[in-house]
Design goal:
By secondary structure, this protein is an alpha/beta fold. It has one domain: 3-Layer(aba) Sandwich (Rossmann fold). The chain is built from six helices and eight strands, in the order E-E-H-E-H-E-H-E-H-E-E-H-H-E. It has an eight-stranded mixed β-sheet with strand order 1-7-8-6-5-2-3-4, sandwiched between helices. The longest helix is centred in the first third of the chain and has 18 residues. The chain is globular and about 45 Å long. The two termini are 26 Å apart.
Amino acid sequence: MKGEFILTKKTDKNRSILIVAAHPDDEVLGCGGTMAACSKKGDDVYLLILGEGITSRDKKRDREKRDRQIKELKKQVRAAGKTLGVKKTFIFDFPDNRFDTVPLLDIIKTIEKIKKEVRPDVVYTHHDGDLNIDHQITFRAVMTAFRPLKNEQVKEIYSFEVPSSTEWGMDTSSCFRPDCFMNIKGTINKKIKALKAYSGEIRDFPHPRSAEAVEILARYRGVNVGLEYAEALKVVRQVFK
């Protein structure tokens, strides 16, 4: 496929990698195999989850009502992260599917706070054309937090696809067109295992967030570029010296 390449490059220096996701399980669905592959080769993988991921199930947000479930979901985040080799996880409490009710600056400053701690070289985050409003806002906040100033350390930013959001996006001018693929043949099993840690989020086939559908998508993305399993990514920014 013209203009596309497989992300297999190696560097002598272990990199600091930050995944910025709106909700618990987005990171696994979007780039769980990539996270495990990077960790396996020695990169430091950090995970930032911005939202609590559950209160949108109620007509009105009631944080206390869902407190027990939110705590359980945080345990699942860490269990999934352990499977994928995450070095450190940061979880915040922005309202699920209500990021548009929060000042964008608050989300940006949260990302910038973690940025100062982990000093990432590479960032993975949501696609800006996703159906989910929190995904869209997360992308915008990431692009602001990592704007390309003179001394910006981050030289690579990629967006990933999240089943049941990316493919359901309605803006055809901003549909997900991957131009970068990560070989996850060696980590697809870890991706599926990490997904199953989210017992309350995983769905039955043929839902896009079922284990079977996630494996099918990985096979399809692999077929796109002559691999058995792959995760598709969109290059947002690459700066090479």
